[in-house]
Amino acid sequence: MDFINAIILLLNYIVVPALSYGSQLALGAIFVTLIYGILRFANFATGDMMAFGTMFSVLLTWYFQSKGIGLGVLPTALLTIPFSIIMMILYMLIIDKLVFRYYRIKKSPPVQLAMVSIGVLFVTQAIVRIIIGPFDRRFLDGEKFILKAIEFKEMTGLNEGLTIKTTQVITIVVTVIVVSLLFWFLNKTRTGKSMRAYSDNEDLALLSGIDPNRVVMITWMIAGVLATIGGVLYGLDKSFKPFVYFNNMLPIFAAAIVGGIGNPFGAFLGGYVIAFAEIFITYAYKKFFMYLLPESLEPDSLMQLLSTDYKFAVSFSILVIVLLFRPTGIFKGKVL
Amino acid sequence: MAFFEGKGMTGGYGGVDIITSCTINVNQGEIVAILGPNGAGKSTAMKAMLGLLNLKSGTVAIDGQDISKLSPQDRVKRGISFVPQTRNVFTGLTVKENLEMGAFLRDEDLDKIINEIYELFPILDEKKSQIVGELSGGQRQQVALGRALMTKPSVLMLDEPTAGVSPIVMDELFNHILKVKKTNVAIIMVEQNAKQALSISDRGYVLVTGENKFEGSGKELLNDPEVRRSFLGA
């Protein structure tokens, strides 16, 4: 019985949260990797672009709530996603036209484009703060739990409860759908294949008659979808605070690099690698050992490797280790 | 008037002219080899005909129409196909996807053209679902040729198609090029392996410092004592 309790404990505090956090990182990481593979620069504005899309979702959720429009047990925010995606894509295309396009035509080196994206980061951050402010917002409504700890305990008679939040299930389901659609698009459609071809060999793609402007436009559109959905899912699961989105850039980049930058499938798995690593290392295992060990051996300390305040240190360490020992990532990078 | 002709082409990258009033032409169903020592401007002449180089003077015409002002992409639409010397395949895509991308501009039934390419290069049919990065050098060159032929070009330009492959593979590739010639395509190739290239070519041009030095049929050039001494090493 104690053994099962210990397993439930890990499921509840590590596996379920890491799966949903990992999904959110995965969407961001695929966004980073697509931009890197096709537009050939590291987009430092990733986190803040996600905040930009989520901001519209928050505003529209408030508006819909005031009009009494909702989805019942599901969060109203789901209804706002399509509108937010449109705003996000518009913003990205405008930024591309005003800023990135100039450097692309000049064939600037990737480092310069990355610096330019830092400029875009500051501007986007400012716009978000002017429109919605820097505060922490919760915009989750509807049914909060699918499975409550108490219900689980009553059902199974165990000491430990298993909680499954609605947002966690929504996150995982939506991620699986979005990522499957994306891979289908990249591997099976003509446009998707032309994007992979463009990422693989730009000159030959031009000689084959692939229109670079179209590839770039579609890349931003897909990026807009990924950024908005990833951002909204994260915001629903935790909360929407622009600064936190900016910070999320580190685990997102770590995920993209661990998976092999330019490789969308690698980025997808990289999201989960980072999420599990962060939560595994910052979880306090005291109770887990209390279940497994005899009373005499019970640990006095929290049995926590690192405080949760240091969770970014975990992604950063993974990032550095991967770059030192396997710069192409776990999966071969730089191919789409 | 030849089918595809670059006439009096002069130009280079930046200030210095790499080719000076260089003239090259080819007819349909003919293989023309461009030969010459290193740095003679062979590849540059070919790139000028594709439009990858801005010409100071001279014209490029296909089928009597002047295309000197067109971009490389527009020239591709006019039926000119180019196989670069390096990075001439999409290494991360499968063989079949490479062929599909080659015909990105074509709307009609791709499967029919792809099957024609498979007939020309049977090995590609066998390996159609394999990632091109995993193929051998000779197989990759066949993918590159196949990709270029997907547009059903009237002119095919090959930049050192046999660079870095073994002599056996080289013979095989030349055989494939002869097969392509039989489909009434005009072929221009730049080659380092001058003797072998001339043996399958109808005509050849020898460029020296960007100018036409010798020209003639493959046999004439092979038998010309001066050409032999200077460029064929015998």
How would you explain this protein's 3D organization?
The complex is a heterodimer of chains A (336) and B (234). By secondary structure, chain A is mainly alpha-helical. Chain A has a single domain (2-325), classed as ABC transporter involved in vitamin B12 uptake, BtuC, CATH 1.10.3470. In chain A, 72% of the residues lie in helices and 1% in strands. Chain A has helices at 2-39, 46-67, 77-105, 110-131, 149-156, 166-188, 190-200, 202-207, 212-237, 242-247, 249-258, 264-282, 286-292, 311-325; strands at residues 145-147, 164-165. Chain A has a two-stranded antiparallel ribbon with strand order 1-2. In chain A, helix 1 packs across helix 13. The model of chain A has no long low-confidence stretch (mean pLDDT 92). In chain B, strands 6-7-8-3-9-10 form a six-stranded mixed sheet, sandwiched between helices. In chain B, strands 2-1-4-5 form a four-stranded antiparallel sheet, covered by helices on one side. Chain B is globular, with a radius of gyration of 17 Å. Chain B has helices at 42-50, 72-77, 95-102, 110-120, 122-126, 137-149, 167-182, 194-200, 218-223, 225-232, and strands at 4-11, 19-26, 31-35, 55-62, 65-66, 80-83, 155-159, 186-190, 203-208, 211-217. In chain B, helix 3 packs parallel to helix 6. Chain B has ten helices and ten strands. Chain B has a domain at 1-79 and 155-166 and 188-234: Rossmann fold (3-Layer(aba) Sandwich), CATH 3.40.50.300. Chain B is an alpha/beta fold and 234 residues long. In chain B, a hairpin with a 2-residue loop joins strand 9 (203-208) and strand 10. Chain B is 38% helix and 25% strand. At the A-B interface, helix 7 and helix 8 of A face helix 2 and helix 3 of B.
